Every structure is written in structure tokens, then in C-alpha cells.
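User: two proteins, same treatment. go.

Assistant:
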Amino acid sequence: MSRSALITGIGFITSIGNDAATVSASLRAGRHGMAVHPLCDNPDVAIKVAAPVREFFVDSPSWRDWTWPERYELPRETLRSLAPHGVYAFCAFEQALADAGLTKSDLGDGATGLFCASAGSPFMLHHHLAQAHFSQFERGNPMGVVSSIAGTLNFNLAAHYGITGAVTGFVSACASSSHALGYALDEIRLGRQDRMIVVGAEELNADTLLPFAPMRALSVNPDPATASRPFDSARDGFVGTGGAVVLIIEEASLARRRGASAYAELVGWGQASDGHSVATSHPEGAGLRKAMKRALRDAVATPAQIDYVNAHATSTPIGDRAEAHALRAVFTDAGAHPVVSGTKGLTGHGLSMAGAMEAGFCALALREGWIPGNPHLVHPDCACGGLNLPRETLSVAPSLILNNSSGFGGSNVCHVLRKV
């Protein structure tokens, strides 16, 4: 376990920017990506706001209709088996490779692995099944399965980039890419792989997002400026988003030998389940509290050493309150007062990609020396008493950051990142 892991490349396709520089500028300025963005043609659907990805059109079930920024070249044979969020992932992957100073030829040595997170594409699955039912299963798209099921990212990216190391997908709802990142760290620590590529991606469409409406998980606030406001007493649900984030993690000596510039070091992680409910957090944040303590123990860090916590904080009433209780138990009760913020107030909630996206934000903050604020927070929930929740971005250089994620079934995953 003496091997350490560095983040050496990041690719962003998000609602607040499609490259690291734009994402950083948006986070520092408190600029959100929300918009009035109806997800279906029914005016009676109460969900009016979402956080779309700009510069891409992937709303059609046919890859022939899709468009993306001209700087990316997606081969026809690759497109045929992609889902819409696969296009995001491909472009973010290309960014991350360039950022890390790597090429496709560097990935096929067996020492590079790929861990992906996505829920698959309900949109594409619905389309392909509808076609099959219409023909009574006499016809179907030969790429229908690999373009739609939950492993679509790992299938397509591993094949396109010739990755022969460890390849798998993670499905734990909104903790998925955080699980991928944690296990990627273990692969490097244990000497199984020298380099891991972690991918989180999701689509933004009615099939992916609107099934959350009957759960009362989505915000019905029609104002893009206030619909997502983590920890605020007036929050009423999350705002959905899509996109992709790719993180390249390398064993430290490998990164140094090839002269790579690192964003941050991954120094620990922890996980725990609530064992409480299939859909809602434990009311006191019991599992998240354990996960944070386990991550700190793994990183050999105390609560007082953490400068910033990037909270899961989706802007749901139950989830934010449970996380606030957990944060108070781990930090406030120990006399520690790290800055806490929920960046989903700017990006919206990216579901399975959220953990990787926010780990990328933490890496930017560590390298550039700032801490994101809570720009939409007006009246903090009473459960947040004792938490340090600044409104504005702070020009303070953090040294140690904790990143939280939680998913259905009470899955809680936390990472600790350190300044290089």
C-alpha cells in the first residue's frame, strides 16, 4: 500500500463548461449552468429547469443526427455503438489524454485499466425495444444492446482505445463514479495497475430524468437561478444534468518518470452503507458519517486537517439534512470547521457521474488555490448549524479536501485528495 496515486489528466463535458479552464472560471465566479429546458412536450409536467450541456446535439436515437464540437473526430464505426452520453465520454476522454500528455498508443500495455460509471441509456433502450416490439422481434439494431445497457461506456471505450488492463463498470446510482475512483486507487496501491482511467457520464433527457419526478426528488422551481440550492431551507429537489468527466490516475513514480504534471494526490477513500432505505438517506446520515471517518483513517488525516468538503448536497430536503447531520458529527463535534459547499448548486446533479465530476473540481481547487462557495444559499437549513458555508468562492489554497457521494440503497463513498 506504499504506492501513491496522482491525478494527471482531466476531461470535462459539463453544464458549466466543456474544458478545465471554463469549468474553473465558472466555479470561481459562481456561474451556474441551469436553464429553462423542458424535457418533454407536455406543458403539464412540473419540471421546467435542467442543466444542459452546450455545443452538443444528441437528442435523436440515430447517431447520424448527432453533432459535437468540430475539434473532436468520432469514427463512424465507434459512433454506431455509442449512446448519447458515450459521445460526451469520448470527447472528455480525448481531453484527458491530451491533458495528461498521453496518446492512444500508451494505453494498450496491460498496465492501464478503465473503470466506468453510468446507468446506461434508458433513451436508447426504449427506442430499440420499441422497434423490436413493432416488428414482433423479427428485426432489431445489432448494436442495440451494447449502445444502451449499463456497461456501454466500458464496452465502447475499451474497444476503441485498445485497453487490455482491468476494465469494468460500476452501478451504485449516484455513488457509481465515486466507487470507480476508489477502486481505481486500490488497483494502483496494490500494484495491479500502473494507470487507471475513470469515466463518469450521463444523458439529460426525459427517459433518464423524469422517472425521478414521481419520487418527488426533482425541483419544481421554474427559476434557473434558484432551482438548485443545496442546504437552503427553501430547496425542493435536485436539478438534472448530463455530460461526462474523465480522470486519469497514475502511480506517482510512473507520472514522475514521464514528466507528467499532477493536479492532486489521491490519499484515501472510505465507504459505508446506511442499511436503512432503498431510496432515502438515513435521517442522521449514519452511513455517510462512517464513510467519512473511514476515508480520513485511510488517508491518515484528522477532521481538523481537512480544509474543504465538497458535499454530495443534491438540494433535496431529506438528503441535504442527513448530510448536514453527518458533517456536524464528524467535524463540528470534533471542533473542526472546514469550508463546506455543494457545487451541484451550479452544475445540477449528474447522477452516476457526480462523484468523478466533483473529484475533478477538487483537483482544480487544489492546483489553482481556491475553494468553491454556495452562491445560491440564502437561508441555511437549521440542521446546518455550526457548518462553515460561505456564499462566495474563497481565494484560499486548500491542502486537503474531502469529497462526498451518496447513492440509492444508502451507498456512501468519500475520497480524500491532497495538494501536490
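Protein 2:
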Amino acid sequence: MHFFSPCPRGLEKILAGELVMLGAAEVRSTDGGVHFSGEWLLSYRVNLHSRIASRVLWRVASTQYHSEQDIYDTAFALPWGDWFDVSRTIRVNMAAIKCPLKSLDFVTLRIKDAVCDKFRKLCGERPSVDTHAPDIRIHAFLEYNHMMLYVDTSGDALFKRGVRQYTNIAPLRENLAAGILLLAGWQPGMPLLDPMCGSGTFLIEAAQMSLNIAPGIGRNFAFEKLKNFDADAWQNIRAEAQSAQLPVTELPIFGSDLYGDELKAAHLNLENAGIRETVDLKQANVLEISAPADHGVLVANLPYGERMGELAELEILYPQLGDLLKKKFGGWNAYLFTADLRMPKFMRLSVSRRTPLFNGAIECRLFEYKMVAGSNRPGLN
């Protein structure tokens, strides 16, 4: 079987490594995702265990095309009735790069028509379309003269773990947060602090990683609605994951936020995940905190205009944050995620690494600051 997993741009190499660990073969990264192959049950394991993938798409067609009719014919020829029942609702998603066809909306409609026409030929009925919460998502990707069709085995995007039900106005997607933790080199057992924790995304991901909780253990997947669903195999895979979980206990994971409503959301999300006691939470101004240990990783999704204040206010915050790191976080590595690319100029600290990442369509950077223990000397930009 051939698969493709999209992921946040900038995390492709991390996803590729994760897929290799899960047993994938022919792993090949591309912009925005990773191609791979393996047995059918691999799709179950990746859906359950991947912290970085956004979806697991099963490739059912890969061919050349020249017209909308070619695309229709390819889709019509596929054995849709072998894969899911006509009672399942469907939706077709389209993405394209350098596609010469005039209307992607029309191409999307032609693929939907092909699937429905095939079912009508097979059983005299056609599946209904549900653009909001379909049972089966069909994905099409068009390049200049090459098309690929996929059946989505995930359903809802994989960053929807099913545990974060309370969010702030600028939530970080869970798979992006997990990727940032891995880029930061954080590992279970290392002290971790998020001093602007919001609804607690970094904290939840870190706690689940520490306790070996599979990110998809609390949700359902679209592959359960396919005709070839192997319920016994899925039950065994889930049971194996559950048996590998560690007991819930206090962890060196710390979170704080200035705003009580944000902190309440973090409390509720941690409780919903069953891991509230793992994290030390408190209400505090980021500029007034102290390091909770003599070393560790500080990670923060910084405000960048849309979420907290105007640009002038941020220009005041950045140097104050730099002073805090200098004075109170010697021995720590700080990882600051933001779309405000002016930030380093105001921080007045040496940036040791800049990693381009995307939060959805927003271009961002993950800035690394290594704070040397016992030194209060400011770095140079």
C-alpha cells in the first residue's frame, strides 16, 4: 500500500523519522508531507501513534491526465464499492500545483460525479455529499499533467486529539506543538516550562509524550468505516498502546499564564486528558517568573499582534523578555515561536538557530536561545 501524510511545513524530516520508527518503507519527504509505503495495518498504527502527521492518505490512483474527462475516467474506473458502502457520505478535497485546467471547482465536481456514477451503476444508488462531517474524504492532488487520488483513513485531522476542548483565540495545532518540542530537543524527564501556556497545548503534548500516551488513543478514525476494517487487529493495536502507557504521576512540566481564563482552559484540558496532576500550573506574569529548575527547556508561542496588543507593545515586551532570560534562566535553552520576524532585533540576545515553520498558512520562525549559566552578558544580533 502507498500512503501520503501531510504535516505542518517545516516538520517533514521529523515526520519521516517518526514513520520509519513506526515501520514505514520507501519514506520520501516532500514539501508539506511525506510519502511512504507499508502493509494496510500500518495506516492504523500511524493514525494512532503519529504526533506530527495531519492525516494518513491511502493512494488509490496515480496517473497522467490531459483533461477533466481523463480525471473523470480515472475516478470512475476505481472500485469504490469495494472500499465503502453507498450509505456512507462523501466529500472531495482538491489541491493543485501548476494545474493547467481552468476550474479546480469543476474538477472537484467531476470526481464527485465519477464516484456517484460508479455507485449508481453498481447498485442503483449514489452516496450523499456531506461537506461538513463526511464519513469518507476523497483527496485529489493535481500537478501539471499528473494526478493522484487518495482515500483519507483519518477522518478528522490528526491534530484533533480529542482532548483539547477549550482553546484561546490563537491556538497552536497539536502536531505543530509536538514538532516544536522535538525540534527543541526536549525529551521526557527534562524540565519544561511554558510561561505563556494559553490552553496548554505544549504542556499536554509533553505530558502525553512523557507517559507514552498515544496521541490518537481517545478518538475514532475513518478507516473504521471502510469495508476492509479489521476490528480484531485494531483492538490489538489499541490494547498494545494502552498497555505501554506509564502511570500518571507528577512530572517536571511547568506552565503559567498572565490570564486566569487561559489558565482555566489549560486546567480543563489537562483534566479532560486525564493528566491534570502531571503539570504544575500557576497564574503569573511572564516577566516576573523564575526558573523552576537549574536547567531545562523553555518554550513559548509568543503573541504576534493578532493575539495580544499592538506592535508597539511587543517592541516593549521583547527586550524585557530578553532581560528575563539573561538574568533568571542561565543553563536553560529557550525556544520562542512567532510570526513576528522582527523579534530578534528587539530581544538583544544571540539567536543560535532559526527554524522556518508554518502555523497553517502563516510563515513563522522558531528562534533558539542558549542561555549560558552564570553569564549575564547580552548577546549580539
